[in-house]
Amino acid sequence: MTKAPVAISPAPRARVQAMKEYHPPLGSRDALRLDFNENTLACSPKVREVLARISTGELTRYPEREPVEAVVAAYLGVEPAQLALTNGVDEAIHVLFEAFLDSGDELLLPVPTYTMYEVYASSTDARVVAVQAAADLQFPYEKLLAAITPRTKIIAIANPNSPSGSTATRAQILEIARRAPQAVLLIDEAYYHFHGATVLDLIGKIPNLVVARTFSKAYGLAGLRLGLLAAPVELMRWIRRVLSPYSVNSLALACLPAALADQPYLDWYTGEVLAARAELEAALDSVQIRRWPSHANFVLVDIGPQHAEFARRMRAAGVLVRDRSSDPGCDGCVRITIGTRQQMQQAVEALNTTIAALRAH
After folding, report:
1. 347 near 355, Cβ under 8 Å?
2. Does the predicted TM-score (pTM) go above 0.90?
3. Contact at 8 Å (CB) between 319 and 19?
4. 106 has which bridge partners?
């Protein structure tokens, strides 16, 4: 009798087997969403108007991103050849790493920072060199300069950074670019609208500078998955070779010009967040909760050993926050996204009740 063949599953690359897994703690999010740094209210009403006009016939055609890229480039003051729209900033990071990281290369990464940098780098044959921030979680400028070697191929800096909310200065960015001419310097400006400082104007003037942006935060388009990379033409031609031609969907492309055109709405929402951030910081100070200065739409706070219980009790009170205690240098820390002033009044009430209950124990 012939034995049945033994089932053998195909094995992935060794590098994929060694990759870190990322599991976003989504689950039920039917509460005040202060856990993912999203726009907590809504996108521009003009985006909804565009969605209402899209016909089913339009969905039968492959998306064309170049006309919209030209609109975005004009809005941002760069050349169309210097800009590529992506499926969220995650795809922007992924394709950049795939284009430039090779065996023996190093990714220089100040930590703590956005988790997906290390995840995407781990799918390549490059080595991640982590530069740990000090206890104040400020940008580790001097330590990063000292870590640059001839093998440094990409330096990734979130500016402002998550989860700390800290920033690198323009002068620091320029010096890093000068010290590492062999490396791509990625400045991820996902939270630009809550900070106001940018180096986008230096695209094409600094040959190794690349800037990433997202439309998931201030613009409120996280569900449409829209991001961008801006880079010198010489670098962009290699990035486009890796980038899928149809990764940005038609609905996103149709809505983006309307979102960009509604500057009053963007200004109103960012103004709400900045005012609410100041109010939350004052509330944290009043109950003597240690926090870090933030230039983004979130605040990192030190809850201590009760961090997990704090997040659980806040959820029970209808407010979702993000436990970041496992991030390097963030033991006991929780990150709180900032919404509108009215939303943050609810959050402060829940926070005060939760802190009082934890201290009573």
Report:
1. no
2. yes
3. no
4. 127, 152
**Bridge partners of residue 158, in order along the sequence:** 188
Question: Are 32 and 339 spatial neighbours (Cβ–Cβ below 8 Å)?
Answer: yes
Check whether 300 has a pLDDT greater than 90: yes
* Terminal alpha carbon distance of the chain: 69
How many other CB atoms are there within 10 angstroms of residue 254's CB atom?
18
Domains and CATH numbers, the chain: 14-41+264-360 (3.90.1150.10), 45-261 (3.40.640.10)
- Among residues 356, 298, 346, the alpha carbon closest in space to that of 324 is found at 298
CB-CB contact of 160 with 198 (8 Å): no
- Confidence band (pLDDT; 50, 70, 90) for 16? confident
Q: Which two tokens stand for residue 196?
A: 């106001």
Question: What digits encode the pLDDT tens for the residues 124-162?
Answer: 999 999 999 999 999 999 999 999 999 999 999 999 999
| Angstrom distance (rounded) from CA 164 to CA 298 | 9
How far apart (Å, rounded) are the C-alpha atoms in residues 273 and 269?
A: 6
**Cβ neighbours for 163, distance < 8 A, ≥ 6 positions apart:** 112, 298, 300, 322, 324, 327, 330, 333, 335
Residue 312 corresponds to which amino acid?
R
CB 75 within 8 A of CB 65: no
Burial of 312 per CB tally in 10 Å (0-12, 13-18, 19+): middle
